[in-house]
Design goal:
Blueprint (H helix, E strand, L loop, with lengths): L1 E12 L7 E3 L1 E6 L2 E7 H7 L1 E15 L1 E6 L15 H16 L2 H16 L3 E6 L4 H11 L2 E8 L10 H15 L5 E7 L7 H14 L3 E5 L3 H11 L3 H7 L7 E5 L5 H10 L2 E4 L1 H6 L7 H7 L3 E3 L12 H16 L7 H7 L2 H6 L17 E5 L11 H7 L6 E6 L2 E5 L2 E2 L4 H16 L3
Parallel strand pairs: 1-5, 6-7, 7-8, 8-9, 10-11, 11-12, 12-13
Antiparallel strand pairs: 1-2, 1-3, 3-4, 5-14, 14-15, 15-16, 16-17
Helix pairs in contact: 3-4, 3-16, 12-13, 13-15
Bound molecules: ligand LTUXU72L and zinc ion.
């Protein structure tokens, strides 16, 4: 059989249901999909590849899926540090966004973020930001995969006058993106404290009709929960449940404040939790009980959050932090072992986005979204278990190759669809403009 591409790494970390780790196997790609995984010694008998990529000291694994970010915020990286969430948002980030966030800012910021994501092994991200059409354009140009948030927030911004206009523009964008195989959409109400009941009811109706996810910051801090109790007499999660939002379409981002009953409710409803440990640590928001959620049967996926609260988009770093912090929070070193941490950044994230038939693991029939990581470096020796090393001692600089739908977007650490020099120059221009404005 003639095929486009044959990759021969040292290990294939499949992240399949059996968590198989294969040594000296090859992976065959044709028409953007994985068509075979077989012992390397048999590959040349079965296939006539047009291209062979030999990676003798590398692990090949599914592309990492960042289940929550605000890509365009790459241009606000380091602008406001060492602050708690509400001070950070209300006194620094929202004023900066009101001044700068237009279509050009979003396009340029998203390009910069995509470059950082590809160079750290992310092949798909779930975004929430203003001017989502500019995000979608940058995604399409770069060839990465993304779920574009159709945002809803009660107050007017440069992108729209309020919920009605946001929804109308979001639906139009959703229709435009139907022809783009690498782009999907989710409804993205910002947070319980910025979106009132009426738009939530409306978007719930739309999400059911369109069968797309709903993606929202929920229970990020104790302050959020306490304020809601004082203002509405209910915890935000209780209010969302009363409105009917909690189901398998719902992605609750952060979730640092959870009672035992709320964990049971999330499990019963099939709601996904998106855990952003580094953003939660930096803003001192609290600790998501990831291990308890996983034990209860909740699907937990990982996200970095935006560049202004993390401050990187490094999913390998996020996996490591998630594994470490889970042990400290549970006071149990056995929770969230390496493979489970890797699953949160791959198949669990794919499941949260409704894409688990397409991406999240290396299995025949799935899209060829894959990354290669060099485990031949000094820092990776000696190597007993590649999954242990990937989670506990690999840095993003070891990501050498990235493919999305079979297309190579990173080759030996060089981006193939984005111009690194031009991106640096553009980011510096923005820094000058933003940094020099009083
Ligand atoms: C409606 S566009 C997204 C909106 O969310 C802001 N944002 C970024 N990070 C967080 C966070 O951790 N909690 C709440 N809101 C956040 C971003 O700046 C945009 O205004
Ligand atoms: Zn966020």
């Amino acid at each position: 059989m003639e095929i486009e591409l044959l990759i021969i790494p040292e290990w294939i970390i499949t992240v399949n249901p059996e968590n198989q780790v294969l040594r000296h196997h090859a992976l065959a790609v044709n028409n953007s999909r994985i068509v075979g995984i077989l012992p390397a010694s048999e590959a040349e008998k079965h296939y006539r590849p047009r291209k062979i990529v030999a990676l003798p000291q590398h692990a090949l694994l599914p592309g990492l899926v960042n289940a929550h970010t605000h890509a365009a915020m790459a241009l606000l990286k380091g602008l406001a540090d060492d602050l708690p969430l509400m001070d950070w948002l209300q006194n620094h980030i929202w004023p900066a966004e009101a001044r700068w966030a237009d279509a050009e800012f979003v396009h340029d910021g998203t390009q910069l973020a995509i470059a950082e994501m590809l160079r750290s092994g992310t092949t798909c991200f779930n975004d929430m930001y203003f001017f989502p059409e500019a995000t979608a354009q940058a995604v399409d140009e770069a060839g990465i995969r993304a779920c574009i948030g159709l945002i809803v927030i009660d107050f007017p911004t440069a992108w729209g006058s309020g919920p009605e206009e946001y929804l109308q523009k979001g639906l139009a964008l959703h229709d435009q993106l139907l022809e783009k195989p690498l782009l999907t959409t989710a409804l993205a109400p910002h947070a319980p404290y910025t979106v009132s009941d009426e738009p939530l009811k409306q978007l719930l109706h739309l999400a059911c009709e369109m069968d797309i996810p709903v993606h929202m910051h929920v229970h990020e801090t104790a302050f959020e929960v306490q304020q809601a109790q004082e203002q509405n007499g209910a915890r935000p999660l209780e209010r969302l449940n009363q409105l009917g939002l909690l189901d398998k379409h719902f992605l609750a981002v952060h979730m640092t404040q959870l009672s035992e009953d709320e964990i049971a409710l999330l499990a019963q409803k099939g709601t996904h939790v998106i855990h952003c440990p580094e953003s939660n640590l930096k803003l001192a928001s609290g600790f998501c009980p990831a291990a308890q959620l996983l034990t209860a049967g909740v699907n937990v996926a990982l996200g970095t959050d935006g560049n202004a609260s993390n401050n990187d988009l490094d999913m390998l770093g996020e996996i490591r932090t998630a594994a470490l912090i889970a042990k400290a929070v549970a006071q149990d070193a056995s929770v969230v072992p390496a493979m489970q941490a890797l699953r949160m950044a791959t198949i669990n994230a794919a499941k949260a986005l409704g894409l688990e038939q397409e991406i999240g693991s290396l299995e025949v029939g799935k899209a060829a979204d894959m990354i290669a990581i060099n485990l031949g470096t000094l820092e990776s020796q000696p190597l007993y278990d590649p999954v242990s090393h990937l989670v506990y001692c690999t840095s993003r600089d070891q990501v050498t190759h990235v493919w999305v739908a079979g297309r190579m977007l990173l080759e030996n650490r060089s981006l193939t669809t984005l111009d690194e020099t031009a991106l640096i120059a553009k980011a510096r221009q923005w820094r000058k403009k933003i940094g020099e404005t009083p």
